[in-house]
């Protein structure tokens, strides 16, 4: 195995750790999107699953949230960027991903069945959509779940390592274009 493939394997291993370890710095990622009006936006999401074979991450969201509209805008081809920073390793990952938002079916019901037992279920039960004004509204009870599952397949991955002895940077994905880069 060459050095770049070995590094990629370490990154995939760290992602697998991240999604199953509370407090792991890569469990939360910054997701950057472009709105239908062409404006940039970014927010934090929790990475829930990593499938190495499919090179796919999974996060959950409110089906009514603006980010879902950003991801479903045809012109953007469902693409987004996930940025992760690990202070311990000194590693940044910048991943261009192609997303697929799923609102129903087994992929959603199986995950909701697990999540609904946890306090996080409240995040998906508000009668108001994320970002809606609370002004003038009386508190309402829980509504039906507005739960969506987002699969994010890694199309490109840029790895940056900050080190006092010298920074290093590599393109690890797509594998056929793997290369060391000037940081
Ligand atoms: C630590 C942390 C974790 C979060 N995790 C999620 C998440 O997994 N999914 C999600 O939709 N929003 C999550 N949020 C909230 C989003 O960052 C964002 O505020 C909200 O989803 C509305 O985003 P939007 O208006 O861009 O759609 C999280 C926020 C924080 C601070």
TrEMBL record:
The Pyridoxamine 5'-phosphate oxidase Alr4036 family FMN-binding domain, residue ranges: 12-97
Superkingdom per UniProt: Bacteria
A Pfam family: Pyridox_oxase_2
Name of this chain's protein: Pyridoxamine 5'-phosphate oxidase family protein
Taxonomic source organism: Ideonella paludis
Native organism taxonomy: Bacteria, Pseudomonadati, Pseudomonadota, Betaproteobacteria, Burkholderiales
